[in-house]
Amino acid sequence: AALKRPCHVILYLDSEYVRKGITEWIAGWKARGWRTAAKQEVKNVDLWKRLDAAVFGGGHRIEWRWVKGHSGDPGNERADMLANRGVEMARARGRGVGAT
After folding, report:
1. What value does the mean pLDDT take over residues 30-57?
2. Alpha-carbon span 82 to 52, nearest angstrom
3. Which of 49, 69, 97, 98 is 20 to 30 A from 81 (CA-CA)?
4. pTM
5. Which class for 22: exposed (0-12), middle (13-18), buried (19 or more C-beta within 10 A)?
């Protein structure tokens, strides 16, 4: 569900790429027309644009906290299980979903 009003959110993730992308690199990517410092097109730019709008367009204060994946962190283990379940459900419905 979408957040209806500005909130303080603590978001735990096991992807340094996503954490650094949203906290360090995205401003430069946007300034360069969604290109990296090496002038390459940013991969998954459609997803980055959606994340950018959600993060910076809602007035939320977000803390991005990295956790090591597959290390026994209960929240991370549950998120991984749910993501895999979603992939299985999509495949069962005949939708193309990449491997996790």
Report:
1. 95
2. 24
3. 49
4. 0.78
5. buried
Rounded Cα gap, residues 60 and 3, in angstroms: 9
Q: Does the pLDDT at position 100 exceed 60?
A: no
Instruction: Please return the burial class of 21, using the count of CB atoms within 10 Å of its CB with bins 0-12, 13-18 and 19+.
Output: buried
Assess whether pLDDT exceeds 80 at residue 1: no
Give, in words, the CATH class of 8-92.
alpha beta
Placement of tokens 């992939």 in the chain: 87
Give Dmax over CA atoms of the chain in angstroms. 41
pLDDT over 60 at 99, yes or no:
no
